[in-house]
């Protein structure tokens, strides 16, 4: 039987701000509700950030996850993937508390430092819903998203061991990040098989082009052989195109309002579930079948929902 395609949905992230879409969930009740709806639509993995409910700003306060995680677990069997990315100005030590507190089945792990720039987005708006938004976006022109080898080792040591046994979604924003991962794998920080996420289309990383996706896949084949699973993110306008082609190439896919606010050219998505529904339709029409959460657990070798701490 053909391998099934795992659909991840990234619910809110730390890139987009409240002004950009009225449908972006920034409060615990809407983050949880949209996550549940995305799971019901067919997402096997829910990639979660939290927001400060007072102003919608990205937050890594474990208390801001407390009203989200138990509700999602109670109403879905989806795999929960908690970000260790926080936002680009945070240190790794600042970004880890939610994962350490709740010990999810999965966590994202960024595989290298990079410029992570959002500032061109600020030029699209004349007014702002929240006071923090414009400075947050314009200030990103000077950001370095720090993920050194020491940072990577810290995350691996704290979350990857027997205390938490977290499976990492290794986020690779460029080809060099694949080589960083190979270096870490060779030194025993991680155990194969591994799970790669090709993050394409972020200013500062590799662009979301089909030639680049092919090159990322070829490089991963060379470095990791058959000891990996992979997925692709097409940030912005390339979201569905990269998902379609990635699935045809044997990969898994990620959608969600963290990665794109739109459902089609010029039309805002009404929810995360709308994007999940669309990508499932595309996948079905081209012969791919979406994996269930338990099938995703088997494919990725996860510890199981009964081992989390929420």
Automatic annotation (TrEMBL):
<dbReference type="Pfam" id="PF05853">
    <property type="entry name" value="BKACE"/>
</dbReference>
<keyword id="KW-0808">Transferase</keyword>
<keyword id="KW-0862">Zinc</keyword>
<dbReference type="GO" id="GO:0046872">
    <property type="term" value="F:metal ion binding"/>
</dbReference>
<dbReference type="InterPro" id="IPR013785">
    <property type="entry name" value="Aldolase_TIM"/>
</dbReference>
<keyword id="KW-0479">Metal-binding</keyword>
<dbReference type="GO" id="GO:0043720">
    <property type="term" value="F:3-keto-5-aminohexanoate cleavage activity"/>
</dbReference>
<protein>
    <submittedName>
        <fullName>3-keto-5-aminohexanoate cleavage protein</fullName>
    </submittedName>
</protein>
<dbReference type="InterPro" id="IPR008567">
    <property type="entry name" value="BKACE"/>
</dbReference>
């Amino acid at each position: 039987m053909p391998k099934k395609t795992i659909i991840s949905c990234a619910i809110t992230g730390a890139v987009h701000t409240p002004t950009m879409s009225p449908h972006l969930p920034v409060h615990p009740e809407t983050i949880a509700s949209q996550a549940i709806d995305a799971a019901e639509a067919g997402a096997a993995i829910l990639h979660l950030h939290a927001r400060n409910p007072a102003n919608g700003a990205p937050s890594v306060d474990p208390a801001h996850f407390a009203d989200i995680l138990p509700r999602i677990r109670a109403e879905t069997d989806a795999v929960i993937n908690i970000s260790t990315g926080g936002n680009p100005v945070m240190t790794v030590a600042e970004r880890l508390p939610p994962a350490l507190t709740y010990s999810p089945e999965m966590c994202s792990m960024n595989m290298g430092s990079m410029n992570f720039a959002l500032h061109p987005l600020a030029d699209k708006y004349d007014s702002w819903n929240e006071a923090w938004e414009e400075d947050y976006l314009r200030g990103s022109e000077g950001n370095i998203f720090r993920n050194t080898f020491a940072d990577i080792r810290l995350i691996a040591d704290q979350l990857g061991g027997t205390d938490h046994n977290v499976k990492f979604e290794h986020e690779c924003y460029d080809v060099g990040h694949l080589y960083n991962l190979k270096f870490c794998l060779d030194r025993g920080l991680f155990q194969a098989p591994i799970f790669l996420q090709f993050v394409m289309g972020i200013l500062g990383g590799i662009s979301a082009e089909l030639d680049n996706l092919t090159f990322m896949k070829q490089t991963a084949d060379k470095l990791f052989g058959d000891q990996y699973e992979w997925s692709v993110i097409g940030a912005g306008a390339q979201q569905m195109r990269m998902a379609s082609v990635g699935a045809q190439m044997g990969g898994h896919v990620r959608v969600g309002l963290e990665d794109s606010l739109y459902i089609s050219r010029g039309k805002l998505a009404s929810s995360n579930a709308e994007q999940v529904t669309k990508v499932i339709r595309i996948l079905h029409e081209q012969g791919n079948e979406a994996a269930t959460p338990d099938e995703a657990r088997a494919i990725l070798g996860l510890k199981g929902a009964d081992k989390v701490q929420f």
